[in-house]
Amino acid sequence: MEGRRASRRTLSADPKVGALATLIGFWLLVAPAFCTEQTFTTFHPERRDWLFNHLTVHQTTGALYIGAVNRVYKLSGNLTLLVSHDTGPEDDNKACYPPLIVQPCSEPLVSTNNVNKLLLIDYSQNRLLACGSLYQGVCKLLRLDDLFILVEPSHKKEHYLSSVNQTGTMYGVIVPSQGQDGTLFIGTAVDGKQDYFPTISSRKLPRDPESSDMLDYEMHTDFVSSLIKIPSDTLALVSHFDIYYVYGFASGGFVYFLTVQPETPENSMSSSGSNNDLFYTSRIVRLCKDDRKFHSYVSLPIGCVKNGVEYRLLQAANLGKPGRILAASLNISATDDVLFTVFSKGQKQFHRPPDDSALCVFTIKDINARIKERLQSCYQGEGNLELNWLLGKDVQCTKAPVPIDDSFCGLDINQPLGGSQLVTGHTLYTETRDRMTSVTSYVYNGYCVAFVGTKSGRLKKISLCIDAQQAPMNPQTERQLQSFLLEHRREASDWWEATTALKEERSGGRKAFDGDGDEDGGYGCTCTIGR
């Protein structure tokens, strides 16, 4: 059957010569390259419209798990199909609540695709969490080895995560525990069904898949809960309001989400225009891993700036390590976490973002420092909580003699907390014509390499190296860099062949890579993936 086997596909590319450019205090190295036509193994779904939504790679075995429309696949490292699990289509209607698998529904039923919304490996229990759009967003726990269904909880309202079938609206983070239960943090768009679904919550992941506590909220009482819902008053002010969760991760003692949401007016004036009329803001949300009351919730705007141009519409993100060279430029350790992000220009047209985009990097240390400053100012009684979409009004910060250290997880005052001061990253690379849509990274021999995907299906390989403005490149570093590029060319020969050229930079007598690049600073080889 088509799609149940791997096939050979061709990758062709336009030849370009790369260069070194100075961007916001960083040297951007894109290995100069000439792309050659090569053959790659590919895997296809049974039907063309059953798109792939999520992919995760097992850290130990290297097996690939793909969440697609109506299917979950397990593949080997060479894209050989090992096993598939059917998730749809099924008869359903989004108006059926609770879903018809729990009780009969009077609404007309139609065959409905199941769009994979979440695909996470629970390493501590050797299982895969797969959540879809059918039946108000129920999940399955599948055995990693053979995708056998361990459990499909669906009989309680806590089991329904969201019926939104749009991709890029939900993200989850699994936090393993030393005890019986792990914790699942979920952020999701709710599509106007704020009474049914919280926008963010933490849920139990018991070791026993048959446990009655599976996916229950960590805490849920009349007064405090491990969840936040969008108030109906907010939708009355901004009819299209929702929060889209683009990325999430855990680092240190915290869980973070990167979101995009419409801005809400500071007064009671409503905004009932179309999505195209709204201004959007990208935000970073932080919670303590062990905070069941959500007293630690802090949300700040995030973005980056290049030559006065603001990039504020988040497209993608990836948590990684900086490597020794980039870490030196960022004044952090090579083992510290950094966040690579892709933003589009401006704050409008989130659903049809501009092609002008930027690759940026944030250090988690800097993000935490900005959050700490915000907490300290609020606990000194300065300003208000600045979270209009949730609180509906200006709430003054309460002055309290509380020491705010790096692990502070909030009290029952001054929470939940927002802010308006932008957390700004370092802009590494810009692209004006072919919008960047995805990013991942890895460290090779001390150098950090980013792979960026674009709207047209091109792949850019970007090496992020030392800041020559602050630290002139000595001969030893230069030789290491040449060796790196040559070794990296061999290691990445499946992508392209690389050549390098050095020339003397006149100012200061330093050495730098140079060559011809795009007018927008897009240097290097961009390969079009065969369709």
From TrEMBL:
One of its GO terms (molecular function) is semaphorin receptor activity. One of its GO terms (biological process) is nervous system development. Pfam families: Sema (PF01403). Residues 21-531 form the Sema domain. InterPro entries: Plexin, Semap_dom, Semap_dom_sf, WD40/YVTN_repeat-like_dom_sf. The keyword Amino-acid biosynthesis does not apply. GO terms for cellular component: plasma membrane; semaphorin receptor complex. Keywords: Glycoprotein. This is Sema domain-containing protein. It comes from Pogonophryne albipinna.
